[in-house]
Fold these 4 entries.
Entry 1:
Amino acid sequence: MHWLATIGGVVLIFVILLDAFETIVLPRRIKRSFRITASFYKHTWTIWTRLARHIKSANRREGFLAYFGPLSLILLLGFWAVGLIFGFACVQYGLGEHLQLSGENITFGKLIYHSGQTFFTLGYGDITPSNAAARALAVLEAGMGFAFLGVVIGYLPVVYSAFAAREIEISLLDARAGSPPSATEFLSRLGCCPEQLVLDGIFRDWERWCAELLATQISYPALVFFRSQHANQSWLSALTVMLDVTTLIITGVDGIHPDQAKLTFAMARHAAVDLAQVAKAQYSPHDADRNTAADLKRMREELAQHGVTFYDGPDASERLAELRVLYEPYVYAMSRNLLITLPPWVRPEYKKDNWQSGPWDRAIQARALERPGHAVDDHF
């Protein structure tokens, strides 16, 4: 039976190394039906979201969900390490009597201990290999332990660098589209200056952001679970708002050419489709309508108040619906799977942007009101 342990250990080591290579090194999505990392995230995220649903406070629930992304990286690296240690212990067990421990019997538990101290290069020397095969295996495992440490040191900074780059545009969206953002608010705030060059520059920046979002989150799938710094912001909300805004421009807004908006829409839609597969989202035909007839009417009125005229032809609703169906099922599916609230097309009530809020605001406003001639304006 020892040879079965050796084969099992070699297979386990190979599977873990392949999974680590595909997750960290290979910059593309793997379509194979079973992967350790995919199974790990599927089961751990299911448990985490079940716990989160018992938290009644939205802010506390969002804070709890924010722990999953960073914590999952640590757990995944630990899972790989434990698997490699166990695999090498199985191979050592299959090699037979080749280790020495001061006359004591070598049990499988002691082999796991020996494998662990070799992997982490502790070098206690209480268990020593006694033949060439065992020595070679010990050297191989120690080298793999060094490589594992190098991966941890190099992998985490790259992931957090990609996360920081992702969040820059999301933060910039705060003053342009509100908190949470919406397509109507975005166009309304630009209604006073709808210069084509300004809009095209903004859309080009977001086209590149969508491309970078797609590239980084396919290369590092754990980023899908990383939440933004504010509970009312997220990468999915930003992506959805850009799809909504470009959809409105393509449908028709007076004075705005849709050429660049079409390019941005195409890139954003590409990101939504591919990232829905990364997030293991499932299609549902029962999603609610994000933009009802009442919402569309209110959106037109609000845009008109800010000097933006949305196309009002007889086929306006159909043209808008044709574009929405290209991406809304995907963002809805990711929203359900990741427990992220999608942004509305038009926000139901006025709320301060994140940049307008601060922990000292009440005290400052109260102090300002005590001084004659001082007024506090809450509006942007």
Entry 2:
Amino acid sequence: MREKCVSVRHARSDGIESRKHLNCRSILSAGALAAGSSLVFAALPGVGFAAEADKVIDEGQKEEKQRIAAGEAGERFPRIEGEIVIEIQNDWNYDAPDKNDELNDLYSTTEGDFNLFPTGALPGLFANLHLTWEEVNDNFKGDNRYFASQGVFVESLSLNYEADWWSVIGGKFGPNFSIAYDAAPGIYGTDIPEDEIEVSERIGFGGGVTYDAEAYGAHTLSGSTFYLDSTILSGSTLYTSRPRVKKNQGGPSNTESLESFALAIDGADIAALPGFNYQVGFLHQDVDRVVDEDGTALAGSETADENRVVVAGQWAIGVSNDITVTPLLEWVRFWNAEGYDGEDRNYLTASALFEYQNWNFSVATTQRWTDPKGGSSFNDYQWSVTAGYLFDFGLQLDVGWKVLSDDGGNYRTLGALASYVIEF
């Protein structure tokens, strides 16, 4: 799926799963819905509406009333907490090697995340449901598109338990690997990391433990084992159907057995480096079968299990009360990418986000080097810039531009994004 938010600040979840709707790329906070350990990667406070009746109430009394109400709500069981992220985006692809790819695409990416806390006897126990409504088929040629091929699907459905220093998860979720797919800034900063690095919609279980060293920061070791979802939940419904995944389609972790796994260490809250967070991780995806683009199944001697490593860091630097600069750097190495024996890839994502009061400006790039077995190495890349403004009532508007070099061709796109977050 495609991510369309704008800021890089992201409230990480339990060290097992990173839900896209919880990123703060729209600069609105989602920290209240973080579904995991205390490892939190710099989220900004949320923005809400003030009720008309509150205008006649003394400001101090109103704040106290809201504080008390929030405390009482937090102790009720059962209760549901959630967030809905509404995004409407327009991409004008004005330059492409194939003129059929030059078109306008208007679409929505709307995500709802819902957490059910069933009992006060186990306050850390909750069930999570994450629904996504987005463009599930973008293989169109030559025609402008307006909310075409939108479908809704279950991105995650899991049972979670979160304690002070440990957490567990089971069900359908996204294993913890990489931060750039969720944290790179701008309208287009996450495009390549999300399409090619993010690992999502897996079925399995995992857990994490956090060591809080106070001055040395909080560091979480997480691990999970999983396989690609090929159940009825892998399809989509409402307006456009996304075909259900089948095992004979092959690909990494499409095994219907727990043979793939991820391990990662995430760190933050380091006293000497305020605003800094990092991740070092390893991912193994078992491969039973690889089907080429023309539908031909590769011989077993041409396939191999995929392995990856990631090293990433992000640093929100407060220059002043009004100015924040956030650089991000992530390197990911693939061995046997997508199950093709001997095909290695390197991805380097680098970005910088500049924030002044409600304004934001960002530059981002992802470079991909591919080294196929028996072939010549080549480099693809994407550059993008974005500028935007967050209104006090919660609406964010952004405009952006990107240039993509892929398979020897250059593509240029101008885009605009409107986003809004509803929390409850």
Entry 3:
Amino acid sequence: MKRSLWELVAALGIPLKPEWQRIEISGITEDSRCIRPGYLFVAIRGYVDDGHRYVGEAIARGASGIIVDAQRGTDSQIFPVPCIRLKNTRRGLAKIASAFWGHPTTGLFTVGVTGTNGKTTVCHLVGHLLGERETALITTIANEKHKLRAITTPSSPLIQEIAYDALVAGQKHLVIEVSSASLPLHRVDAVDFDAAVFTNLTHDHLDFHGDRESYLEAKLMLFRGLKRAAWAIVNVDDPAAERVLGETRSRPFTFAMDRGADLQAADIRYERNRTTFSLRWEGRTAATTLRLPGEHNVANALAAASVGIQQGLSLQAIAERLACARNVEGRYQRFRARNGVTIIVDFAHSPDSLERMLEAVRPFHTRIICVFGCPGQSDREKRPLMGEISGRLADLTILTTDNPKTEDPERIIDEIEAGLAPTGGRYERFADRREAIRKAVKRALPDDVVLIAGKGHETYQIVGHEFMPYSDVAFLREEDLVESGTSVVD
């Protein structure tokens, strides 16, 4: 794939220079380490580092052109390759990446899913409903195949490349998990969304956004940017729904369990390992059984079903396909321990998601043993909140580590404990996550459930600046703590 620099810069709507027509660009990146001869380097000012420090390195590696921030004091500098100066290089990167790959999202039914909780599950359910062979996914889990760890929404060049590959492969749909950070960072600026889904808004990521209002404002960017013909699919059970619907010019479609909406769930019956309910839309009803227990998964199913409706699926077809949907890796993933105890591994890493998981398993087990920690260098406010929730809802909490990064794990646990201790709930501390899980399983009785929360699908523990190999699921199997065979308890 090659494009002229003229063609790419034209996407920015700035004055062009004739000589740019003769310069071929064979790739685009904001990472100087990935530069190859013929690449265009876009310097991004990050929160930890500044790409402008590496302009010289990019040129030395063979960059055929560079894009820099006009505010970074580079006006007087002379470079041996074409230099384009922009007010916002992140926006420029998104537009140029889309142009380089031929604006691929215009040829796909493209869905963006945002919200605090449920994004990954909704994305994978949408892929299941629309056809997994015909649908490309960009999600926390799907990104692993691109060797991306701890990233929900990748950089704009990779998003456009994945979309292009999907088109070439004959796929028809693209579903993107859109994080709150990716929106102000302009990673999805040039994506042509046909639908956007809002799941919910609860406490999380305040370390990045500062406060809840700024967090919501970031989410609203997705809906403000929708074209008129797109669909704004919104969970009206959530208090933020009115704001979301009021900020978009696109066509609204609502779903709910408790309020009036275009698509509703009725006759809901929660069981240990499944949920049965009916979908209701435009006077029609279709019953389904979801192998994903819990109230939150009914909401996730409604969100996915809403997308299916916009793509012309009948209510009956949606119900039938939901009934055969598989568990998403690391989301409510169930195991049976050697002593008969049920073990659930889940990604629940926010106060709301942890509370929902504990409430979902409570009716079916005598006791709950909850194992969790909180990440380092991230939202400290949620630590005591999650401690309070587990202290109140679990019978025993075992506090441990979860990607401590450069923070002292014991100090992180101290902050969780500050919220847990006043509840009077029983708890223990084991900074070693492996030891915490061993203790939890050992203390559990046959009718108990051990909820291992926070890491879900992750296959690493971030310690310092290193990604150390680790997986809750792999550890359970390696230690022979669970029965062999399928992970799901039927």
Entry 4:
Amino acid sequence: MKMLLCFTIIPLAASFLIALLGKKIKNFSGVVVNLVSLSLLSFSLYLVVLASAQKLIICKIGGWMPPLGICLVVDGLAVFMLVTVNLVSFLVMVYALSYMSRYTDKWKFDALFMLMLAGMNGVIVSGDLFNLYVFLEVASIAGYGLVAFGVEAEDLEASFKYAIMGSLASIFILLGIALLYSFTSTLNIAGISLVLSGEPRGQLVAFVSVLFLAGFGLKAALVPFHAWLADAHSSAPAPISAALSGVFIKTLGIYALVRVFFNMLGITANLLFILIVLGVLSMVVGAFLAIAQHDIKRMFAYSSVSQIGYIVFAFGIGTPLAILGGLLHLFNHAVFKSLLFLNAGAIEYSTGTRDLKRLGGLGRRLTVTGGTGFLGAMSISGIPPLAGFWSKLIIIIAAVQAGYFGSALIAVLISIVTLAYYLKFQATAFLGKLERTWEGIKEVPLTMQLSMIILACICVAGGLLLIPAFKPFIQDAVGVLAAGDGYRDAVFSALK
């Protein structure tokens, strides 16, 4: 139980130590962040086994029982997210060892990243709404600083825009929490679910649902709440772009959204319909915005909007098969989109540009970057037998089974559009004649290559998550969402 505290205390302590000693001791911050992220990944993998046996793990802070005390809760869904977040974070930190050496005061980057990681882990393990909000703000504020880390005019503008939109989202979420507390007299997620189960769903719950949908929708960059995403992701250093797109928007947006609605407020037919509409809209708008881009990172950012649409669409269908597809695509997208942003960073590291119009033939010099980028691009496009194919296939089958034939067709067509702009990226950047300007470039350092290779291997083998051996990892997460208010019963049973 005490292990759950490690997911927030260790990165917070690391951030504090780096702030104290990072400037004085050379390479101190790089060693600390990699050790911390590796240890958190190890803890999260151990929790897969532990949570599979116990189903639910609760840590009562100070021994106090809710509603007076704060409790941390880890179930199948939380374990799934912890593994996803800490896996990507560790590989991003390995990549950043070389990539961030070009920046001054790298220790400040490492301290902020540890804060962001503590916030994301805190959101996942929080058993009450207010602490979920607190950790959400910790991660968000660290994210604003990391987007502006390059301190160029473009970076500062993107960070300011992101901060304004993020603050607006936070206001919506905090207002929703305050209204729920005034009605239920508790902040515990299971406790709120228990109170609401004995009351008719009135206008207050409907209004709070709208506030949460807008707030978490902004954090997830769903259309029409996506305006901040392209600027933030394109301006941030490549490791932060990878973390933002790979796990940040999924933790603060998608995870919080489904936890609140599926396990606390309860799912209604109207809400599922809204999720389907937002999902399909995000799929279409994101794809067509991406195909028009020549800046690699902006293309990938809009692609994230489109792929988040697939995930939300799957949750909107609401069947166990659709939830399985949504969670699998969430994990796959965390992997292949992180890989693609790291590819973009490698290209910029070697050439100094992200403009596709200026690139060409890089595959002859950047063989690892080109090869791993190809696997990531084909996986996100749904090409068999790569990981993205299986998650998209499950989502489309679930949509057909549920009778959403038109939406299933749109999902297939958007996957073809996705393939089109990723082929454009591959052909323009890596194929064709090598420009004279780039004849002297070399492959990126080994640590950057290592992260890209590991992520590419997961893109190839990701479909294995569907075999019975990995059932505790993904099927338990599906069970948590499919059970709905069963989360409430499990928590109270564990607390007795």
